[in-house]
Specification:
2 copies of one chain form a homodimer. Chain A is an alpha/beta fold and 494 residues long. Chain A folds into 2 domains: 10-236, P-loop containing nucleotide triphosphate hydrolases (Rossmann fold); 270-492, P-loop containing nucleotide triphosphate hydrolases (Rossmann fold). Helices cover 52% and strands 12% of the residues of chain A. A 5-stranded parallel β-sheet of chain A has the order 2-3-1-4-5, with helices on both faces. A 5-stranded parallel β-sheet of chain A has the order 7-8-6-9-10, with helices on both faces. The radius of gyration of chain A is 27 Å and the shape is elongated. The two termini of chain A are 47 Å apart.
Chain lengths: 494, 494
């Protein structure tokens, strides 16, 4: 039950509030030190005072470390991306605060009541929100969510007051009054939303917002408690150093893996290759235009054994394409800014726009490959990543993105041949480093990680295609053919 | 004279081109190593083959290190910023390549012929472009600019060919044919543009684009030459280690500086302060709304002596504002990504959007203050910065941005008092570090740098206001009053 008459006397407020402000400053420094990102979401009735309580927080926090995001209806560019894209972009770095004046909940409230989102989309949105918050929380983010509550009568009173001043009258327009009339309809949706999205890790706090003093105090207290809880949780958690992957001795009951069953002798001669390539390029060129006009985004992921031929394969695929229609996203070790964010953050930012192709030269699968093998992240992290990646790709797929994922495979002998060739050819020497030789020694670990990755992340909406790449020509033709088919199927299914 | 019949035989091409591709790969690695950013601009007649030559470069370059930018008409969001803003955002980092399929030259060509830019704006654009390229070049950027040239007849032939295929017919619409009819008009503008913007450091290269082989070869050769020239220039340049600033002994002929003439005893008592503050806040609240509806951007810069009270001043200024209308941009030492860019890059990105207020807690003036005093950049760098900053602010001002710049000044005794108070108050201790004490020892250097900064960067469009800040209350009221007046004047002048 919400008691909208909650009040705090001037005297009590003066006794309590300055202390809270001071605590919040210290809390921010502690969060910075512990590397905790903090997300504070404000939803609530129009005129409930979101702006002023956010401003009060902004006044209290050190500006080197927070941002305020106002969530308006999506812009044209934002609509060309999966709907969660713009929120991923605003993800705070470790130690930073982000405050949202309205948020992703817009999609299950305003967009729904205004008929922009149907029942089915709304259900999908609930699931997306749940996964999204869970992913952020699993990465150690604190999410505090406030619903600022006032009665219909109080809202009316406030609208009238706002209308009296020239500086604020613009805030109350037809839409606001229309929403006001539909207060009870809204209330039903709000109740559903609160019920469905109040999780143990990110519960809603309903704030009785009739009085500013009370509201501010409750908000400050709630934020303080949530952030301290996470800092304490981290301090108490046993520190487990990630360790490089080990592989157990093979057991006689192990069957051959998908990689063992590949026919790496598959090949094409130069003539067949040129002929096939010519046909496929022509087709792909037409398709690039068609996905552009029909606004289909395409994401192509390249992973593979070192020296498997990713670079050359990408080059053949893009030859002849219009460079305005595609981008190659090379993925290396994360830079410091990327390291301070959720590992999927930098990939969300590179989501291909509707009508465009993005080719990822290595990808988010680094989490379950190099990071797992080398012990760059903890075991819980890479174990959780399979689910996270499937969710991530499903959101892109739901938006209509065609996902094609390649694993370029060669055997150890072929790799050795290529490494040696690189060392002997002056203009290829830069391509071979000590790290390549080190990685080669970990062949069994990588193989096991790849097999598990292929098994756990091949989905109906984002299947893996393994390219038998001992013969580069064969692998190139197969790659382009796979892309052509995937796009054709997607276009046919629309 | 342009000979549009330039041709390269198949045999010559086969002999030369593969070598160029290989050289470009090596050139990219050399540029990466030397930290040279490379900008390649493609302008030219429609259907002259911009797309395919860019694609060929993209094929040849390592994707870990280049981006292709297509310059379309500005989006709604881009139009809310100074026109050069979007190009600053695309600035490549040290060692990266950026290729532009059309560019900032759009403004003196297409926008002009289509009547979106008048004669006066076009003149301003020429100046902006000149300054912009010069600033990038001074920071060590290579800029290569190509005009791809074909005859009117050849263009017609190509349009007809494009129209024949479904995949390319969309490229030739009414606009293209209309432009084709006006080929000669365009030509006059193109000639003017080439003449006015061909500088020694960033000359135009006219590429006879009738034949693909010839065009590709010339483009590759030109890029290679330009990048190597810069790498050699850097290798040959004597390495001067930046040194911390020294101040010469004062001479008896030195007059008092602007800082010596300040009346730091200016003060307000608490009652006057509260009264003034109340009035000013009310006014500022109204103005925040007015600049929003009238789409006026406002940038407020805070610089000042350590412990001069910047933070508290900013807090009082923003108290009561709608947080959706302003942002505080705290400026610390640049992160690695920022360090790899032009020093103004990160400030351009934070340009306030039309209708919004941005408060900079420290700013681009770091270049001529801390970087100069501590020897973090070379002497030529900070000397050049006065002009660069004036140009930068003028571009914002031309767009209509109201610029207010504060220097908060206190004397050495007051600083000592505040430092000591911070050390004694537990919840303020985090505010005082060893660095503050070290900086304090450099008071004479900082003072000299500040005086020169105030003298050289106070302009009619972006004047400095010195705040006598020994009394914090006085400084706060003066700051808000200054902002209120500046906005009022700007609104009155529109």
């Amino acid at each position: 039950m919400v008691n909208l008459d909650e009040r705090l006397s001037k005297a009590d407020y003066a006794r309590v509030f300055p202390g809270l402000e001071q605590d919040l400053g210290e809390c921010q420094r502690a969060a910075r030190k512990a590397g905790v990102p903090v997300v504070i979401v404000f939803e609530g009735w129009a005129a409930a005072g979101k702006g002023s309580v956010i401003n009060r927080l902004a006044q209290t926090l050190d500006p080197r470390g927070f941002e305020v995001h106002s969530t308006l209806p999506p812009t044209k560019n934002e609509r060309l991306h999966p709907w969660m894209w713009r929120f991923w972009n605003t993800l705070p770095a470790a130690g930073d605060f982000a405050m949202f004046d309205r948020s992703w909940y817009r999609r299950v409230l305003a967009d729904r009541i205004h008929g922009k989102v149907g029942r089915a989309e709304c259900e999908a949105a609930y699931r997306d929100i749940d996964e999204f918050e869970q992913q952020w929380i699993d990465a150690g983010t604190v999410i505090v969510k406030f619903w600022l509550h006032i009665s219909k009568k109080e809202q009316r009173r406030r609208f009238k007051r706002l209308e009296k001043s020239a500086a604020t009258a613009w805030k109350v327009g037809k839409t606001q009054w229309e929403n006001h009339r539909r207060y009870d309809e809204w209330k039903t949706l709000v109740e559903e939303m609160l019920e469905r999205t109040s999780t143990a890790a990110a519960p809603w706090t309903i704030v009785e917002a009739t009085q500013g003093r009370f509201q501010r105090t409750k908000v400050f207290e709630t934020v303080l408690r949530a952030v301290h809880a996470e800092i304490e949780r981290r301090a108490a958690a046993p520190r487990v150093e990630p360790t490089p992957m080990r592989v157990s001795k093979p057991s006689p009951t192990d069957g051959p893996t998908i990689l063992d069953r590949l026919d790496l002798s598959l090949s094409l001669d130069r003539e067949e290759y040129e002929q096939e390539l010519g046909k496929l390029h022509k087709r792909l060129f037409d398709l690039e235009h068609e996905i552009y006009t029909r606004r289909v985004p395409v994401a192509i992921v390249y992973e593979g054994v070192d020296a498997g031929g990713k670079g050359g394969n990408i080059k053949r695929l893009t030859r002849g394409l219009d460079p305005r229609g595609y981008k190659v996203v090379p993925v290396g070790p994360p830079n410091p800014v990327e390291l301070a964010h959720h590992y999927l953050w930098r990939f969300w930012r590179e989501a291909p726009k509707a009508g465009h192709i993005a080719l990822f030269d290595r990808s988010w699968y680094g989490r379950v490959l190099v990071e797992r093998v080398e012990g760059l992240c903890g075991e819980t992290d890479w174990r959780r990543a399979y689910r996270e990646i499937n969710e991530f790709e499903r959101q892109w797929s739901d938006f209509g993105t065609v996902l094609v994922k390649f694993w370029l495979h060669i055997d150890q002998d072929e790799q050795l041949r290529r490494f040696e060739a690189r060392q002997e050819t002056p203009y290829k020497q830069w391509k071979i480093t000590d790290e390549d030789w080190r990685n080669r020694k970990k062949w069994p670990q990588y193989k096991a990680a790849v097999v598990e990755m292929l098994e756990r992340t091949s989905t109906t909406y984002a299947p893996w295609t393994v390219l038998e790449a001992n013969c580069k020509l064969y692998a190139r033709v197969k790659a382009i053919r796979t892309v052509v088919r995937a796009i054709e199927e997607a276009l046919a299914g629309r």
